[in-house]
Amino acid sequence: xxxxxxxxxxxxxxxxxxxxxxxxxxxxxxxxxxxxxxxxxxxxxxxxxxxxxxxxxxxxxxxxxxxxxxxxxxxxxxxxxxxxxxxxxxxxxxxxxxxxxxxxxxxxxxxxxxxxxxxxxxxxxxxxxxxxxxxxxxxxxxxxxxxxxxxxx
Length: 153
Prior knowledge:
Elements: H1 3-18, H2 20-26, E1 30-33, E2 40-42, E3 46-49, H3 51-55, H4 59-74, H5 77-80, H6 86-102, H7 124-133
Parallel strand pairs: 1-3
Antiparallel strand pairs: 2-3
Helix pairs in contact: 1-2, 1-4, 4-6, 6-7
């Protein structure tokens, strides 16, 4: 069993016990080991994980990373992006997704993730519009993109 498979098995069991709703979403995830992504990413259908990055996380952090990507899929972030700026849309989606994960008792977000308590209760579209209205520019964003182009197959 690979490191990722072992991490996924443990994560699935922990989530089934502590967060059954999210564990149900995870059952539909198609996980791909892909070291070309820096951390983790999704195209809306598949979740891509960098094995070295995932192996460096605690169990609670790994659970958060998996849920982060699963929520991007469940909330249809890649298909709802439409013609919006990809970087800013991902940033807005991360605020929403991480806001949901932050409230879960048995899960810990990794250091350095995007959090904005003042915006996390809004929809991704609303967060995106608010950031645009405040003059938030893409050049202000320095992070690993985790929304890939949608898989059309």
